[in-house]
Amino acid sequence: MISTKGELRSAVQAAVERLRGGVIHTPTDRSRALSELISGEVFCKIETRQVTGSFKERGALNALSLLSEEQRRRGVITMSAGNHAQGVAYHATRLGIKATVVMPDGTPFLKVRRTRDYGAEVVLHGATFEQSSAYVHELVERTGVTLIHPYDDINVIAGQATATLEMLEDAPELDAIIVPVGGGGLIAGAVLAVDLFGSKAEVIAVETEFYPALLAEMRGEATVIGGVTIAEGIAVAKVGRIPLAIVRDVVREVLLVSEPAIESAIAFLLEDEKLVAEGAGAAGVAAIRSNVERFRGKRVGTLLCGGNIDLGMLASVIVRSRMRAGRVVQIRVLMVDKPGGLVAIATAVNDANANVLDVLHHRLFGSVPAKYAQLDLTCELQRPEDIEQILTNIAARGYEAEVIKG
User: Fold this and answer.
1) pTM for the model
2) Nearest 10 degrees: CA dihedral of 192, 198, 201, 207?
3) What is the CATH number of the domain that holds 74?
4) Are residue 29 and residue 70 in the same domain, yes or no?
5) What is the pLDDT of residues 344-378, one digit of tens each?
6) Are 22 and 91 in contact (CB under 8 A)?
C-alpha cells in the first residue's frame, strides 16, 4: 500500500498523465437553480458524460493500464453493482483484456445489459455486494485472475482523484466539495486531489440513510444497514480499508440523505438542469437541497458521479416526485351511476385548468352502493393549490370527492 503523502501525490499525478485521452474531461457547470437556493455558487461535475456514464472509468482504466503482460494474459475480475463493472468491461475490452464481472442478483437490468454489451462476462451471484465480493475472492484464489477492486485499490483511487482535480481546475476556490460515498474510492480520491491542488475546500461525505458505513466508522460504531435504496451505487456495508485510511483524519462531516430526498434530486436535475442522474449520482444534490442553511452563501462543488438509471425507474421517480410536490394528485369520487356523470367530472377538472391522466371506474366493489359508481382519477395540476378548486367544482355538480393520500 502506498502510504506517504509524497507517494500518494505522485500516484495521482501519474494517473492524470496516464488517463489523458483515455477518459473524457467532463464539464463542471454552475447550477443556476442550486446557486439561487443557497444564495451562493454551486458547481456540478458532470461525470455522467463519460462513455459508460460514470466516474468509475477513471479508476478502472488507471488500474488496467498498470497490469503486467502476464496479468493481462490471465484476465481480470471484479465485483460491482454496475458502474465499476461497465468501466472495467469497456476499457478491458478496449485494451484486449478478458474481464469477468460478478454482480448482485438485484442489479438493475440496464447495468447488467450494458456491462455485457461492453464485452465482459457477467455472473449474477449473491443478494448483496458483500456476497458478490466473497465469491470473487474465491475465484481469484482458484483461477489466478487479477482483481480490479471497485474502491480498495490505490491505483483505482488515484484514477478517481482525477475527477475532483478537474473540478478544482474548472471551478477553483471552492469552500466545500460534497462527495457521494459507497466504498470510499471517490471521496478518498477527492481528499488526494484537494491536497495536490492546494485547495482549502472542505471535503464532505454524503451517504444514503440506509447505508451509513462511513458515518459509523467515524463514530466508532457498528454499521447498521438495511433497506432497498434507489442509490444502489453507494449501497455498501463497509468502507474500504485504503479509502478509510486516507479520509479518516480529513473528512469531518457525513450528511445522510433519505430516499425521498434522493428521488426529488433526480427529478430536480432532470427538470431544472436537463441532466439524467442515477440515485448515487444525485446524492450530492440531495444533500445540498436537504441542508440549505449549512451551505448558505458558500461556493460548493459536487460530483454527479453516475447517470445509469433504468428508464422504468426514472419514470416512477418523476411521477412520485410530482405527487410529493402536489402537482399530481389522486381524487376519489362517489357518484350516482347514470349517463353524463363522467363528462360532468371531467368538466369539473378541466374548469380548474387541470388535466386527467388516468381514470379507474368501479361499479362492482362491495363497498360501493348498487346504484353508485366510484371514480379514482389521477390529475395533473398547474399549481398544488388548484386541488381546492377541483373539489369545489365537483361538489357544485352534486358529487362527493376526496383526495386519496399516498
Assistant:
1) 0.89
2) 0
3) 3.40.50.1100
4) no
5) 999 999 999 999 998 888 765 556 666 778 889 99
6) yes
